[in-house]
Design goal:
Largest sheet of chain A: none
Distance between the termini of chain B: 37 Å
Strand content of chain A: under 5%
Structural class of chain A: mainly alpha
Oligomer: heterodimer
Number of helices of chain A: 16
Largest interface: A-B, 110 and 111 residues
Structural class of chain B: mainly alpha
Order of helices and strands of chain A: HHHHHHHHHHHHHHHH
Number of strands of chain A: 0
Number of domains of chain A: 2
Radius of gyration of chain A: 25 Å
CATH topology of the largest domain in chain A: MetI-like fold
Helix content of chain B: over 70%
CATH architecture of the largest domain in chain B: Orthogonal Bundle
Radius of gyration of chain B: 26 Å
CATH superfamily of the largest domain in chain A: MetI-like
CATH architecture of the largest domain in chain A: Orthogonal Bundle
Shape of chain A: globular
Number of domains of chain B: 2
Number of helices of chain B: 13
CATH class of the largest domain in chain A: Mainly Alpha
Chain lengths: ~300, ~300
């Protein structure tokens, strides 16, 4: 940001109006930080609340870390149902992202080839279902008739080619200088070889970004698993979490003593936190690609 | 002569591009199965479809009966009103909030504050609505939530925000604003980064202060982006946020919480009224399509950028 340097170099010339401005901006930032952080902090501290905790919620938020209890996490990690749900979610995530990328990249690449025969057809072909959304019932009937119910693939297959992601990736590919492709094709590369040898190594940012979009979508999806995965052993994390959260007070989980002696509220908060963990861990690694990848093609100019 | 040239070129192109067609074959088939067969299935909106077992073509054709039933039913206007209330409410509250966040991040001179706010504000976008529901519970739960703690401390009576018809719409709108604020700000931050530095230098030489800088340089610079984002949002005005509302609502707030999508789910997949639910879905899909075309057209006109 070049602008920052400019303002700092003339910092001596700050007028009263500028100073008020800075104070107001910093206050707004402080309030925003509070608004964004408070819900996260309150959930995290709730998950560490010991069973014998007495006091108000706000006191719980400022409890000293040495009084934190890990009982909720211990019971979750020692619970087979939780581990199974976690494994199911991981499977959906890994298979889903792999399939989605393998299917999205060719379409995006095809769309980015200037003189591809049938390009217009391909564009219209992927845009029609995006523009005309027929709702959930027709897809539900398809999955039921195809016998995909109670198959983990039913969670990711219906949404593994997203028109929006194809178009973003297309814009990124189009931004790679055409000379590179031309020289590859002069050297005798087929389009496939050009894709694998020239385009993909240059497109790490967009592949990471789109992979993240798909990953977030599959990991977070609770609706499709709820519709299509009716067997208990196929339940992914969001469904388990939903059941835990919706079961108020004494419920099947606590009654069966499945989660040990941690307080119900702490178990709920801990499972919220555990479900968010893969996203929270992956996030900083991929964050640096956001601006590069997202903005390259978010809105096509 | 000309057509012969055309075919030679066609043959040449096809030969060179055959590997890409091979590569495209599987994605095109998968896309056909999961996107085009549902469009074919959508004809049950015109049929009296009872169960998957009898098949689609095996059920009787009833014309527009399902559509008539949906449009004439007493919940029709409630569903439309709720759907529009949520999508407009989200635009009205979230859009200014994300613009303000973007400007604040851009103008903030305190580095740690800038970095922390920016990083933390993106994060909620990646959390699912199930997780959000857990977080909302920890804030608004009637028995043990921070908001009710404060109400009780000031002598008030605990409110169950999630089952209160007055509070529920605000909870939906503001939880969405909280979750998506940072993510929606990215596009504005990017536009701000693109401002020509020499503009600021010139302003500085002319003696403009920070307020004038924001008013005459920063805001005008992101105005076209704001218009584009607004237009594209108006194109999806019938998408009120199924994943969110389905997770948060309960029978106590159906009157203010039910949107077209949630109603379609209950009618179609819980009560087995497939035809009626699909008709409602098609109704929404058709209007959504017109809106999307319109918003795309205007966005192309205004700012030369569009979705497709």
């Amino acid at each position: 940001m070049g602008k920052k340097k400019t303002t700092e170099s003339v910092a001596v010339r700050l007028t009263a109006a500028d100073r008020t401005f800075n104070v107001i901006i910093n206050t707004i930032m402080g309030i925003l930080l509070f608004i964004i952080a408070l819900p996260l902090w309150s959930t995290i501290t709730l998950s560490f609340r010991p069973a014998d905790f007495i006091g108000t919620y706000i006191e719980g938020m400022f409890m000293a870390p040495w009084n934190w209890s890990f009982d909720a996490y211990k019971s979750l990690l020692g619970n087979n149902g939780f581990l199974l749900a976690f494994t199911n979610s991981l499977k959906i995530l890994v298979y889903g992202v792999a399939v989605a990328l393998l299917l999205t990249i060719p379409i995006a690449y095809g769309l980015s080839i200037k003189d591809l025969r049938g390009k217009k057809f391909l564009t219209i072909y992927i845009i029609i279902p995006y523009v005309f959304n027929v709702g959930i019932v027709p897809t539900y009937i398809l999955i039921a008739k195809a016998g995909l119910t109670n198959n983990l693939a039913s969670v990711f297959l219906p949404t593994c080619i997203s028109t929006y992601n194809c178009l973003i990736m297309r814009s990124f590919f189009e931004g790679i200088p055409g000379e590179l492709r031309e020289s590859a094709s002069i050297d005798g590369c087929s389009e496939f070889q050009t894709l694998v040898k020239i385009m993909l190594p240059l497109s790490k940012a967009i592949i990471m970004t789109i992979g993240l979009y798909y990953g977030v979508q599959f990991w977070n999806d609770y609706f499709r698993p709820m519709l299509y995965l009716t067997k208990d052993y196929l339940r992914p994390l969001p469904i388990l979490l939903r059941n835990i959260l919706l079961a108020a007070g004494m419920n099947e989980f606590v009654e069966a003593n499945a989660f040990g002696n941690a307080p119900v509220e702490a178990i709920k908060a801990a499972s919220v936190f555990m479900s968010a963990i893969p996203m929270v861990i992956a996030y900083p690694f991929i964050q640096k690609y956001f601006t590069k990848g997202t903005l390259a093609g978010s809105v096509k100019g | 002569m000309k057509s012969k040239d055309y075919f030679t070129k066609l043959g040449k192109d096809l030969n060179r591009q055959k590997s890409i067609y091979l590569l495209l074959f599987i994605p095109i088939v998968v896309y056909f199965i999961f996107k085009y067969i549902p469009i074919w299935n959508a004809q049950i909106a015109f049929r009296n479809f009872k169960s998957v077992r009898y098949g689609i073509l095996g059920s009787t054709w009833v014309g527009l009966d399902n559509f008539k039933e949906f449009v004439n039913s007493y919940y029709f206007w409630t569903l439309i009103r709720n759907t529009l209330m949520y999508s407009f409410g989200k635009i009205i509250f979230s859009l200014p909030l994300s613009i303000m966040l973007a400007i604040a991040i851009y103008e903030c001179r305190v580095k740690w504050l800038r970095k922390t706010v920016q990083t933390l504000s993106y994060l909620p976008h990646f959390l699912s609505w199930v997780i959000m529901y857990g977080i909302i519970l920890s804030l608004f739960s009637p028995s043990d939530g921070i908001v009710n703690d404060i109400i009780k401390m000031t002598g008030g009576k605990a409110v169950d925000f999630l089952t209160n018809a007055k509070a529920f719409p605000w909870l939906v709108i503001f939880s969405d604003a909280w979750k998506e604020m940072g993510w929606s700000a990215i596009i504005f931050i990017a536009a701000l980064m693109g401002i020509d530095v020499s503009l600021f230098e010139a302003a500085m030489v002319e003696g403009a202060n920070s307020w004038q800088r924001v008013k005459y340089i920063t805001l005008p610079a992101i105005r076209p982006v704001i218009v584009t984002v607004l237009l594209l949002k108006l194109g999806t005005i019938f998408e009120a946020g199924f994943g969110q509302i389905f997770m948060l609502y309960s029978p106590a707030v159906y009157s203010v919480g039910d949107i077209i999508d949630t109603w379609v789910y209950r009618q179609g997949l819980l009560d087995g009224r497939f035809g009626l639910a699909t008709a409602a879905g098609l109704f929404k899909g058709f209007i959504g399509m017109l809106l999307l075309f319109a918003s795309n057209y205007f966005s192309k006109k205004v700012s030369e950028s569009s979705l497709f």
